[in-house]
Amino acid sequence: MIATVKTSMRERLVAAATRLFYAHGLRAVSVDKVIEAAGTTKVTFYRHFKSKDDLVVAYLEGRALLEREGIGAAIAHGGGDAETVLRLMAEQIGMIACEPGFRGCPFINAAAEYPDPDSQVRKTVAAHRRWYKEAFASLAAPLGPERSAEIADDLMLLRDGVMVAGYLDEPDRIAASFLRSGKAVIAGA
Question: 179 is in which domain, residue-wise?
């Protein structure tokens, strides 16, 4: 007998929002569309989320968790070897950018739609970017604290660029470019 996994209504709302927000954009998707996709009511929606922005934050936090798990696994697997970590990241980026429906980085997209840096959405984006820079800095830690912060900035810029290029350019070339560029940044340090 196959057991079914029961998901909470909050999880269903976030899952529906994740599909819709990423495919169509945050501002283009109404709460009503999310409610309809989740198969629930407005009353139920507002029991779980005070506002659409709270749902957007939950969506971004879910995406952040997935990215952090993936990058964390690459760092753990790399065992302190920055080139191995960059290769693993490049492979993942290449696979993601080649998936049907790839629309770039959900955090860059969210920042474009929420220009106010004091909004909770932008604060969530900023927190994820800080985490990414800390992860990149840990790769460069053997080069010293000053250099690791600079390298983290450079790698973040490359990561942002590859996420945009993966949407606009030929995705099959993106992974190789990220790996070459990342290695050059670290070697140049």
Answer: 52-188
